[in-house]
Amino acid sequence: MIGLVVITVLLLAVEGAPQSRLVYPRLLEERSSDGRMVLHLHDDLTLNLRKTSVAAREFRVLENVDGHDLTHFFKGEEIDRNLHEDERQFATVHVIKKESGVHVEGIVGPEHRIQPMPEMKRSDEGFIAHMIYKIERNKMLDIEVAPRGKVARVVDERSNNVKNAPVPAQVKIELFVVSDSPHFSFFKATMQLIQYLCVLVNSINLRYADTSDPKVQFLLVGVEKDQHGTYRKGSGNYMDSEPTLDAFKEYANEKKHAFGDPDVVYLMTGSDTYNSGPNNTIDTNALGLGFVGGLCTNYFVALGEDTAGMYNGMHTMAHEAGHLLGASHDESDPKTWIKGDPGSKSCKWAEGHLMSYVDGGPKHHRFSGCSLAQIRNVVILRGMACWEVNNKGHQDVGKYAGMFVDPDEYCRKLVYPHKKNVTADMKSTHAAKCKLKCQYPEYHEECEDTRCYTYVTTYYRLLPSLDFMVCGNDRVCIRGVCTPMKDIATKHLERPKEVPTTDGVTQAPETEPPKTKPAPTPTDGEDCQCDCSTSTAAITSTTESQSWWRRKFGR
Asked: Is the peptide bond before 214 cis (omega within 30 degrees of 0)?
């Protein structure tokens, strides 16, 4: 639980610090000697971008239109056409060059996102205005779920397909996402949803960069826009996570072929998930759930919350995917249903790595050594049947959630949705510890005899800052650490070799009626081409943001 702290300030109202930053991106160098594109965002942040990808070559989208189940196939190279990354700065962005200027959208670091603001005034040089926003996430809570039945036998059957097969240097886990109605309805267009998921998955891949022998990366193969949620258990906007996970497992297995036979299926929900407790109580702090070791078995599913457009479900998705790949919570005994599981007893829960609820700062963005060993064990155990990629494609490295969310808006919508005058205090001393301070004031007047005085009570909560959120002068948060810009240098992420692509083929859907709506192919002249906009303008007050920046910086 996030503690509630009360501060009383006499006579003075609390003025929130900036939770967004106005920038005017410009290309300093179209292509450097090593093929990178140099993009200047502001004096403290210049990205050295290389082309990258995460979408499968034939990316499938399932949806129900007028009562008919349809499957659309998109070309992965079109989805990834404008996708670039700066792996050292945890940045993944779509860079679209138009006659009107450069449009940049995506994540510029572990804690921040960026989006164009075309309605705002351009700079004196004519560059398009953009805003950099903070990405926030809630504290991670879940429970470990053991697969039921004879899953161990299934695992052995898969692993014995090829005896003594050499372990590849890298394994791509084919991931299919089901986005439920409360989640996908936020996006105005299917491509916006796809590009949003690409950013999330790439951010997850950064968290898996420490895996080795084999290195594990996720390949996004498709998404279903699920209107009906027949697997859903609960009422209203609340989803009972454990029975829903059981029902979703059956749902995913029934549609596995339609999903392209992925290794993992993840339910991304816009609902509030909860765990049932004793005496009919519920715990709404639960953010996700997944079967431990379910990778490439019938228990290959997990679910998690995400507020569409905010990227706050990235950490939950990384955590639950870790469960599917065999990582249990730190300081846990070996799982009896996983052959050769080394367990995680020697890795202390209090250290605060990714598979702990404790926020260990930078460690919370990384797996413990125990988790890495558990993941290695399960991935190797699954064998070639799991290692083989059914849908040859690209991998999207470099877009991250912190580039997209306005910190004030995040605090207003997610932390204090029913309060007024909510702000994010970016000048707080907590910012240097990569903690976002969400606050709101309450005004009071008290009188004693003939004398009255006014005071303000400010309530606030602290949450972990997102990647690339500003935490001081020339400093940004990188995986929970307030890092000087000049010192940013992370372990180089190996770029997967791109698979040669051919023209995409439109295929018939897996369900009736037997017809498929072909995916539109963007052209160079179309503004909508590969636009990964997350439509956060719908939840952002442009007038307020612009006014604040003009008062603060005189622009």
From this structure: yes
